[in-house]
Amino acid sequence: MSDAISLYEAIGGAATMDKLIPAFYERVGSHPALTPIFPEDLTEVARKQYMFMTQFLGGPPLYSEERGHPRLRRRHLPFEITPERKDAWLECMKAAMDEADIEEPHFSFMLERLTMTAHHMMNTP
Questions:
Q1: Burial of 16 (0-12, 13-18, 19+ CB in 10 A)
Q2: pTM of the predicted model as reported, rounded to 2 decimal places
Q3: What does CATH list as the number for 8-121?
Q4: What keywords tag this UniProt record (predicted)?
Q5: In the chain, what are the domain boundaries?
């Protein structure tokens, strides 16, 4: 058995998610590039993001247990995700990661994975 821990555990697990997700959606909810594609009430979106991010970072498979396979690109097709919105999303997430005190080398690794995912999500020039 490996002694390796997941990124989720390395950054502090649920305690960090409890800081990261609210910090992220506080920014999303006021970002002019993002508000057009998000609902006014971000409660349910934040709950789903919490489950997804937990699973994405190697924690418990909360998202899949409730909602099935993430199918991120497919689930996001109804929303125009432009390069500007991709950058805005990453800007909000990076600031939230700072606020949640995610330290190096985990910060850079996590941001790299999220950046690759964000690029994959773009569906509008």
A1: buried
A2: 0.93
A3: 1.10.490.10
A4: Heme, Iron, Metal-binding, Transport
A5: 8-121
